[in-house]
Amino acid sequence: MSELLDLSIAELGRGYRDGSVSPVAVTEAALERIEATNDTLHSFNTVTADLALARAAAAEKELASGTDLGPMHGVPFGVKDIYNTEGVLTSCQSHLRSEFVPDANAHSVQLLLDGGAVMLGKCATIEFATGAPNDETFFPPARNPWNLDHIPGGSSSGSGAAVAVGITRMALGSDTGGSIRGPAALCGTVGMKPTYGRVSRRGVFPLSYTMDHCGPLSWSVEDAAISLSVMAGFDPLDPACADVPVPDYTAALGRGVAGMKIAFVEHWIEEEGTADPEAVKAIHTALDMLRSEGATVETVQLSPYDLYQACARLLVLPECYAIHEHDLIERPELYGRPTRERLMAGAFVRGSDYVEALRVRRELAIEVNNVILGQYDALIAPCSVVTAGRFDALGDDPMKLSGMMTQPFNVTGNPAMSVCAGYHSNGLPLSMQIVGKAFDEAAVFQVGAAYEAATEWRKHRPSKLAAQAAAAE
Amino acid sequence: MDDDALRRQYDGLIERAGLRIPQDREQTMFNAFKQVQAWTDVVRSRKSAALEPANVFAYETVSRLAEGGKGGAP
């Protein structure tokens, strides 16, 4: 059974259409793998098995009769538990939302369902997509499939874990400061944060109105390109959604990087100060590979990392505080401590500080978009400069920073994708980040696909859990 | 600014916000306040009044929201 779960989205599509692969069999295999791993991995909060099997059966029938809804037709996917799902509990991992069952789907979920995709259920998150994993939340926190003693990153933690362990090729995440790219980096998957406004946020519980992005975590760059092509698009009812045509993201995947000009921001690594030498070496090795594939790679200078980080924090904190203020005052005990304390820190930001951060934001967006990406086709930056930390080393500082260097591109809104850059000697995944011009996700996929094709990282899966799952199946 | 002065600011903000901080978490939250102050120092500098903030809404984005629709508010 389990080899079905190794098929890419494109391979599933071909198999479905020539009759060699059954959407029902793939969905059954995915559900069996959830069953085999969830007691220890906790990647799913809610499993919608009956719904999934019914949709898979419908997809099988439709495809057999010539009705083709597109590249996600019959493909299973997971949904972060802050996306509204019609008739299915949407808990945000919180006791505050323990009974919330939406009457409509989030826009991007609806697009995927309209495209015939098969929802497996709701993936674990960090409570309200902020704070840290803890045992006070409504569902237990997801764990890292490469080593269960380690965190999977957050806040799209269950999505990253589910993709890495092979339950699904794609799960939805959201990213306000790195919540797609972070778990992707720590779980060794691909994590695509599209341009701000590329994917509708309607029906996704907000953390920060100006910094939230929705996108896919997937096993390969091609899976991400196919998924985004279905979930992206203009939504007039999301005030930030942009009316920009969605291209065929798969078209650029095989073009390689020969002739491309790529910038590399190296000084942030030193400034961040906690980088693991193996993580840094992996990025330099990746840059050498891109050069050997024909790209020109040059080191560039951006504003200090501290400025990007301070700007990001001063935007997110008051925005999420405004969203949660009533509950923080009236029923704070219903939050887990890490989330409650992180949210409460929003009360410390003055109005003028927020406006200052917004003004800095414009300057930083101009720096990345006009100054750097006006001269280069893409930018490489570190993603996580450390591997996944242990649960028992999390500490209790609500403002703790985690070695993630993802926030700058929430500030600027550029598309940014985390890809696996190999494995540390401790067995955990390493990562790097590919950044593109606004609405040029295609170039990000192009670079990512060329790098991925030149490496063997996609041949590795978390061995212990995969073996356990295979034995159970 | 010394810690006593910062502490008075912190106490004032917590009181104004109406938040309840357990006694055993006071120091942690005070440290968080100091971290926020540090970030504030990083972004504050003299800027031209003409430097507008990002995210200034255009009329079109506001008017199309007014059309409403099912499934919007989570």
UniProtKB/TrEMBL annotation, chain A:
InterPro entries: Amidase (IPR000120), Amidase_CS (IPR020556), Amidase_dom (IPR023631), AS_sf (IPR036928). It holds the Pfam family Amidase. GO terms for molecular function: transferase activity. It comes from the Bacteria. Residues 26-444 form the Amidase domain. The keyword RNA-binding does not apply. Keywords: Transferase. This is Aspartyl-tRNA(Asn)/glutamyl-tRNA(Gln) amidotransferase subunit A. It comes from Thalassobaculum litoreum DSM 18839.
TrEMBL record, chain B:
It comes from the Bacteria. This is Uncharacterized protein.
